[in-house]
Design a protein that fits this description.
Helix content: 10-25%
Radius of gyration: 26 Å
Order of helices and strands: EEHHEEHHEHHHEEEEEEEEEEEE
Oligomer: single chain
Strand content: 15-25%
């Protein structure tokens, strides 16, 4: 063979290696909601009364009268499963109602009408999993109430906060459509119109997402400002761990004060929030396990040193994380 006639080199030979391939950058964070187009179909109805006929259901009466199921139920002290009987006289409350279309998010609906979504969610007594349904009617503030809003109130209606994303970030599904099971990795892309299935249950056992000096405890500070969680000092780049098993509701940076933000849904009304981070490593709809690295501590958002802002919420209300975390002493 020709290669046998070539003399071996006199000195040591170093194999020429191609440069090592750079690892692929992590995927860009996927936001929890999409600013989908919303048809402004809201209609104001007057207060009326309705006499229940054989075969009527509360949902059918809501469709016929233009009111929402929850508004009729509240006006008549009817509790789930909303049993009504022929001959019963129902008060149909006056109000301004928007009929939800598939794919619409609560946030986008509220922005269409220039109102605060958290107020709308409270007005309609929405509950977990906070997934709207096509054909559902949502009670909105009246046109008179909107017209009387100050300039500051109008601007605030377009600000996002954690509660907005928790209660209004998922796209509406068809009436009998099932929510999408969680995805396994951040490399999978969840369709923008997919609503994520909430975890079935949660025992309420949390772990520390990282350990460090508490810069600011839960509650009202000396200057009157309220902290809805704990601010934990950290070296920039310190891994942030999921406090418990859950599903990612949001991973992005659209809330300026929080910078890089991740929200995890643990089921049974439990939510954890992790803010002021960089290198977000999870995506909306992804299932995560307790202790899994989800991001790294940083100084994104409105903070002046690397840290983690950490919250635990139960049924939309912030609770003191220190009461639900193991003792480190």
């Amino acid at each position: 063979m020709l290669s046998a006639c070539i003399p071996a080199p006199s000195g040591p030979r170093t194999a020429s290696r191609p440069p090592a391939a750079r690892p692929a950058p992590p995927p860009a964070p996927l936001t929890s909601w999409q600013p989908s187009a919303v048809a402004a179909n809201a209609a104001e109805i007057d207060a009326t009364r309705y006499i229940v006929r054989p075969g009527d259901t509360l949902s059918g009466i809501a469709r016929n009268t233009g009111a929402s199921i929850s508004a009729i139920a509240d006006a008549n002290n009817i509790a789930p499963p909303y049993i009504i009987r022929p001959g019963q006289v129902l008060d149909i409350p006056a109000g301004r109602y928007h009929e939800v279309q598939r794919g619409e998010t609560g946030i986008a609906i509220a922005r269409t009408y220039g109102v605060d979504w958290s107020e709308v969610a409270t007005l309609n007594r929405l509950e977990e999993p906070f997934i709207l349904r096509a054909g559902q009617r949502i009670l909105l503030p009246s046109t008179r109430a909107v017209a009387s809003m100050t300039r500051e109130q109008r601007a605030a209606a377009f600000d996002l906060d954690i509660d907005d994303i928790v209660t209004g970030g998922e796209p509406a599904l068809a009436e009998n459509e099932q929510a999408t099971p969680p995805i396994r990795t951040a490399q999978q892309v969840l369709p923008a119109d997919a609503a994520v299935r909430s975890p079935a249950n949660f025992a309420g056992q949390f772990g520390w997402p990282l350990t460090g000096r508490i810069l600011s405890p839960f509650g009202r500070g000396a200057e009157g400002q309220r902290n809805n969680g704990l601010n934990i000092g950290a070296v920039r780049g310190t891994p942030v761990l999921a406090s418990a098993d859950g599903v990612v509701l949001y991973a992005g940076d659209e809330i300026q004060v929080h910078g890089g933000l991740i929200l995890l849904n643990h089921g049974d009304g439990w939510i954890t929030a992790y803010a002021n981070m960089e290198d977000l490593q999870v995506a909306r709809g992804q299932r995560v396990e307790r202790g899994q690295v989800i991001a790294r501590a940083s100084d994104t958002g409105q903070v002046d040193q690397p840290q983690l802002h950490f919250e635990i919420r139960r049924n939309r209300q912030p609770v003191d994380p220190a009461l639900h975390l193991p003792d480190l002493s």
